[in-house]
Amino acid sequence: MDAHPPESAGACDKCRGTLYVRPDDEEAVVVKRLSVFKTETLPLFDYYRDSGRLVIVDGERSEEEIFHQICERIILRVG
Fold first, then answer.
1. Across all residues in the chain, what is the average pLDDT?
2. How many other CB atoms are there within 10 angstroms of residue 21's CB atom?
3. Whole-angstrom Cα distance, residue 31 to residue 43?
């Protein structure tokens, strides 16, 4: 709501529904979530990358292309 405020305060520009901030979108919660990611998730990324088992898929493609790329990667690993 701060970066892209609605035309009418408290109302969605598209559907006119009530806008509100969810408790899990508050700054303190996001900061905590990022901290947990840094300490718990990022090391897993490094572990799998370093072991050669990390597969990166381009998520900016269509669903069909993403699915095809995942299937290709699975077949290469299993086959």
1. 89
2. 10
3. 18
